[in-house]
Amino acid sequence: MVTKRPSTIILKRFPKQRYTAMFNPHSGFFARIEDVGAPEPFWAEHGPELLDIAITNWCDHGCFFCYRKSDEMGRHMGLDDYREVIRQAQVMHAFQVALGGGNPNQHPDFVEILRLTREDFGIVPNYTTNGRGLTEAVLEATRRYCGAVAVSAYAPYRETADAIERLTEHKITTNIHFILSSRSINTAITWLQDPPTFLTRAHALVFLNYKPIGRHANERLLANRSPRIEEFFRLATTVRHPWRIGFDTCTITGLARFGNAHDVSLEGCDAGRFSLFVSEDLRVYPCSFMVEAGYKGVPLRGTTLREIWQQHPAFARIRAQHAAGGCTECQTRSHCLSGCPLFPQMNLCPINCRTNSSQEIEVS
Fold first, then answer.
1. Which residue among 132, 231, 259, 337 is the one 20 to 30 A from 251 at the CA level?
2. How far apart are CA 302 and CA 29, in angstroms?
3. CA distance 342 to 361
């Protein structure tokens, strides 16, 4: 591995897999560039490009869509434990960490967590917040060390709007995370057609497919049950907006089927391929949504992130399922891979589509 650090771009070349990763820590732009004649890498053998880390499961809001069921009984990850996780992330050549929770910015050591991530280990921290606990100290550290912040959108959106205003006033790149479900899709379409004022201050509006786990797992239908799903993807991918539109990889089957995005911008689930999750109790998972799905996770104590990433059966299994290629006769299978292997009911495939993702992954 060879690393070059020009003024704004980080380049890391991985000769074994014959590709170079390019990352701009200021804009968040990321790309993989294969050597001439080399195949696109299916997974990063050296380690994840992104770590999703729950530094806390504490939260005083109680959002109905919370997939971790976070509350005021949630625990915080210790600062020393976090430092060790991020040290190992650096060894594996990670570019970014996504700090989550709970509400991560209410961790008692949050300012120091941001500082050491960027200054001591050269990794760019980002985080998602419900908008509470944005003190001046947190805002200043965010401005200084973070790449971007995402604000979770929840009705009636007053706290959402206030958080966006405070963050953008401090010149912090601010995105909005919108949970897309059959109940919220009408609001999503309205926002795309006639955006609320606070949305115009955001850098990007990012849509996340609803996951059937967490606090109200059985009370909400998924987006693929909505008759307006095709209209939504058309508006999101064909109409020009004053802010950027983004999606999590859990929406890949909808994007590939209904959207108008360029092929180069489409990528299937990266769990266990280019990202992993570490919980506040130091358990490691290919995907953060496995926690509430019954998967126990791999204890980090006594081993290393690299050993888990490269050798543990749980990671090998999810990569093997993705490598199976998804739908047997689907024209977009190279983009969808197997869709979501954890929750196949979330995939926005035709009813008669027979997918490998209908075979649930083994959990332990």
1. 132
2. 35
3. 6
Rounded distance between C-alpha atoms, residue 144 and residue 97, angstroms: 16
Cα angle value 68/343/88 (rounded, 5°): 55
Q: Which residues contact 227 (CB under 8 A, 6 or more apart)?
A: none
Amino acid present at 211 = K
Does the bond joining 302 to the residue before it have cis omega, within 30 degrees of 0? no
196 Cβ contact list (under 8 Å, min separation 6): 157, 161
Helix axes 136-145, 158-169, angle to 10 degrees: 60
**pLDDT higher than 60, residue 278:** yes
CA dihedral defined by 65, 296, 247, 162, rounded to 10 degrees? 40
Q: Which amino acid is at 261?
A: A
345 CB contacts (<8 Å, ≥6 apart)?
A: 212, 222, 224
CA distances from 49 to 3, 39, 96, 200 (A): 14, 18, 7, 30
Average pLDDT over residues 139-165: 95
Do 111 and 137 meet the contact criterion of CB atoms below 8 Å apart? yes
Given a contact cutoff of 8 angstroms between Cβ atoms, the answer to whether 157 and 196 are in contact is yes
Determine if the peptide bond prior to 156 is cis (ω within 30°): yes
Q: What is the pLDDT of residue 66?
A: 77
Give the SS3 label for residue 100: strand
Comparing CA positions, the residue from 323, 318, 327 lying closest to residue 352 is 327
Question: For residue 109, what is the DSSP state?
Answer: T
**Residue 120 near residue 92, CB atoms below 8 Å:** no
H or E stretch covering 313: helix 313-323
> Could you tell me how many residues make up the chain?
364
* 283-285 β-sheet, strand order: 244-247, 204-209, 174-180, 149-152, 124-129, 96-100, 50-54, 275-278, 283-285, 298-299
Q: Nearest-5° angle of CA 234, CA 239, CA 242?
A: 135
Termini Cα distance of the chain: 34
- Rounded to 5 degrees, φ, ψ at 313 are -55, -35
Q: What percent of the chain has pLDDT over 70?
A: 88
What is the average pLDDT across 298-320? Answer: 96
